[in-house]
Design brief:
This protein has 317 residues and is an alpha/beta fold. It has helices at 19-22, 35-41, 57-61, 81-86, 99-115, 117-125, 128-131, 157-168, 191-197, 217-222, 240-248, 288-306, and strands spanning 2-5, 26-29, 47-50, 68-71, 90-92, 149-153, 172-176, 187-188, 200-203, 228-231, 254-257, 277-279. α5 packs across α8. The two termini are 20 Å apart.
């Protein structure tokens, strides 16, 4: 099988073993390509592996031999599922590979905000502690997590793990999810309730037409002024102009974001230098252990397809 794997630099910094894929056929590896470059690279491919590259009608038209599209990700909104289905192309994703890493990062952002860790660290690096008259100084307030209400929007693998971690911190967990699970040990609430009641609202849902810009001027107006928003899911869940306005006016207390609507960050992104904001460049999923697990799962998905029993299929052929 001829396999083309793109977006290589988004998966590996030269530290990941791709031999599980090499065992499945002739693999050509590329970094990020332009749409034209991708069409040229994949024109004879039977299997195409992507991270964020757009797999659309134009690309599929240029790749008549394509039978399989696999994502180096859980999300697959960059793949035109309907177009793949019309051509009998199987599309598979990798659920669950980043559960621990993403939940961990959500709390890294939260702890940074609640402890003002970035400000205190920069202060020490600036020499302020050397000049201090006391053993400790407190120009920025910090907060305890225990006793706060932690809202989980989306109760998949990552949402469940985030809820468990919040419970360990002594937080009161509430959950809003499209399909209420039978085994949820936490209080289930509506969309408006989770915005109104959460001291911390952490987003863990997929980006769909129903969830696009679910954080907007209206839902932000429901939040407590002391509330913090955490987004490690998808940038499109947030109306960025509305969030920036809420942060700059101190309508809410802070935001920790690992994802943006446009990535890399657009020059005109309204959240750039917004007040009380910590932004990281979509790195929640990048621990080496996580990426190693991802590549192994991508290879297993393709192996199962080759053997005639595909798994983690996200489209109906």
């Amino acid at each position: 099988m001829k396999i083309v794997s793109v977006d290589l630099c988004t998966v590996s910094a030269g530290d990941i073993d791709f031999s599980p894929l090499d065992e499945l056929g002739e693999v050509l590896y590329y970094d990020v390509l332009t749409p034209g470059g991708l069409a040229l690279a994949a024109r004879d491919a039977e299997a195409l592996l992507v991270n964020k590259a757009q797999v659309d009608e134009a690309l599929l038209e240029a790749c008549p031999k394509l039978k399989y599209v696999g994502t180096y990700a859980t999300g697959y909104n960059n793949v035109d599922l309907a177009a793949c289905t019309r051509r009998g192309i199987t599309v598979c994703n990798v659920p669950g590979y980043s559960t621990n890493a993403v939940a961990q990062h959500a709390f890294a952002l939260l702890l940074c905000l609640c402890g003002n860790i970035d400000k205190y660290s920069a202060s020490v690096a600036n020499g302020d502690w050397k000049r201090s008259k006391s053993f400790s100084y407190m120009p920025w307030q910090t907060r305890e997590l225990s006793g706060l209400t932690f809202g989980v929007y989306g109760y998949g693998n990552i949402g469940r793990r985030a809820a468990q971690i919040a419970s360990v911190f002594g937080m009161n967990v509430i959950v809003c999810t499209r399909t209420p699970p039978a085994d949820c040990p936490y209080e289930l609430v509506t969309r408006e309730e989770i915005f109104a009641r959460s001291d911390v609202l952490s987003l863990h849902c997929p980006l769909t037409e129903q969830t696009k810009e679910l954080v907007n001027a209206h839902t932000l107006s429901l939040m407590k002024r002391s509330a913090i928003l955490i987004n490690t899911a998808r940038g499109g869940l947030v109306d960025e102009a509305a969030l920036a306005a809420a942060l700059n006016s101190e309508r809410i207390a802070g935001a920790g974001l690992d994802v943006l609507a446009e990535e890399p960050m657009a020059k005109g992104c309204p959240l750039f230098k917004a007040r009380h904001t910590v932004i990281t460049p979509h790195i929640a999923w990048i621990p080496k252990e996580t990426r190693t697990r991802l590549v192994q799962a991508v290879a297993n998905n393709l192996k199962c397809f080759i053997q005639g029993h595909p798994i983690n299929v996200v489209n109906d052929k």
